[in-house]
Amino acid sequence: MFPGMGMFKPLLGFKGFSFKNISAGLNLKTCCRTSIYTTTCRSGIHSSAECLLDVHSPEHEIVIALGSNVGDRIQNFNEALCLMKKSGINITRHSCLYETEPAYVTDQPLFLNSAIRGTTKLGPHELLKVLKQIEKDLGRTDGIRYGPRPIDLDILFYGKLKIESEALTVPHERIWERPFVVAPIVDLLGSSIDSDTVASWHSFSRKSGGLFELWENLGGESSIGREGLRRVLPIGRVLWDWSKRTHIMGVLNVTPDSFSDGGNFQAVEAAVSQVRLLISEGADIIDVGAQSTRPFASRLSADEELQRLIPVLEAITQIPEVKGKLLSVDTFYADVALEAVKRGVHIVNDVSGGQLDPKILTVVGELGVPYVVMHMRGDPTTMQSNENLEYEDVCKQVASELYARVNTAELSGIPLWRIIIDPGVGFSKKTEHNLKLLMGLSSIRREIGKKSLAASYAPILVGPSRKRFLGEICDRADPVERDPATIAAVTAGILGGANIIRVHNVGFNLDAARLCDALLKQRKTSGIYV
Fold first, then answer.
1. Helix 483-496 with 431-439: angle, nearest 10 deg
2. CA 150 – CA 6 distance, rounded (Å)
3. For a disulfide at 249, which of 109, 334, 481, 502, Cβ 3.0-4.6 Å?
């Protein structure tokens, strides 16, 4: 068994998983086809190719660490990412976001830490110069070493090169002792080695199991949530730790044709009353939708959707009960997302994962709000066609297609630390597929983890509430009569790894969620994984 296996165990909660692919890929002597030779350059010791890199460089894959503990830390990160992109750094992946206790100098505010993986044609010293200028532009000044700073940008890896000069050491000299640095690095990898460059990064760790073994030795996944290392998702100015308990998203449909409650809450007064009820029953998030996405629903234009949505949003954002709660908009239109966020919405929930209006990805990236990427094939009029219902292995294929959309969202400017994933229960799925998804969330995480460990750690949302497959199994034609079956489906989802449940009847499902949380806590304490 590969030494890093433990990092997955608390998160995924399934048996039989091994790191055979990793350990096979981590035969570092054969994976790293390029040996490291050193030579003396004007600025120090580099690989033999390095002497020319600052003059004319091909693209090199890089990893840059980000840290901040002064001012608006999230905004500091946003501005740093923007400036990096404008300065010749192509960002391809983001790690998760961590809130961490300071190291070395401990009498200072908590840090946010993350890392990005990307490519650049800048030579290493050019890159260093660019990063130092960004730090200066964002207000960093010379001060106490390891002390407070608005932004800290460090080159962790530059291609397959080892660099030792007066100005720059790569890999960064303190990587190996800092969990808040190693965790984001591991996030940027997949559980399979995807290039010689990544293999070289593993070899730099001086561990036979590469960076995974190093991370395990530092505490691994079991250290997340403890000892000053929290994985968080920023929502406005709040850092949300989704691992502590299951969160409840209450459904508010302001439509005449939704499958469950169409026409019930179109009037503003009725919508406000329903929001009050959902919150009183324990909802953490209110998901407002003004367009039905039931099978074969006719599509509204963005303007038509906004005509339904805006009056309701303007009313519910004024009621005192909403204070401290989160609002989500259920839309696949960029224009609707933009107008909703302007009116106080915190989350964009897109059933198409960017497929029906690709502009939404850029808009959400600019808005800086969390984005729910859901799996669906086709659109509501075609999602239940025979072609879209064909799966050989539904968990594996949903994971692959879902990750492709997550990756597109990242490349469009939405950092991974703002993404929530939804396997799309009830969308382009047969009854048997929905059951397999609810029972197979851990395998979906595992499949996604082959490409990106950060994406595999993203919060999972499931929404089986009152869906047709529950009616088929339980012989309940009326969607409202499917609430007891919804509780069972939600229970399966939570025990399988869901972090957010989207339901119509919050009160019925809250107790189920709390019991599941207690069971999961007991499982974690006792070390039982089934």
1. 40
2. 34
3. 502
User: Using only C-alpha atoms, what is the Rg of the chain?
Assistant: 24
What would the CATH number be for the domain defined by 3-234?
3.30.70.560
Our answer to whether residue 207 is catalytic in this structure is no
Q: Which residue among 73, 446, 467, 482 is the active-site one?
A: 467
Domain boundaries, the chain: 3-234, 325-524
Q: How confident is the model at residue 260 (pLDDT cuts 50, 70, 90)?
A: low
* Residues 98, 230 contacting (CB under 8 angstroms): yes
Secondary structure (H, E, C), 198-214:
HHHHHHHCCCCCHHHHH
459-496 pLDDT tens trace: 999 999 999 999 999 999 999 999 999 999 999 999 99
User: If you classify domain 325-524 with CATH, what class do you get?
Assistant: alpha beta
Token pair belonging to 178: 């800092």
Burial 297-335 (b: 16+ CB within 10 A, else e): beebebeebbebbbbbbeebeeeeebeebbbbbbbbbbb
- Pick the catalytic residue from 502, 521, 523, 524: 502
Q: Which among 30, 22, 28 has a CA at the least distance from the CA of 1?
A: 22
Question: Does residue 80 contact residue 134 with C-beta atoms inside 8 Å?
Answer: yes
502 is catalytic: yes
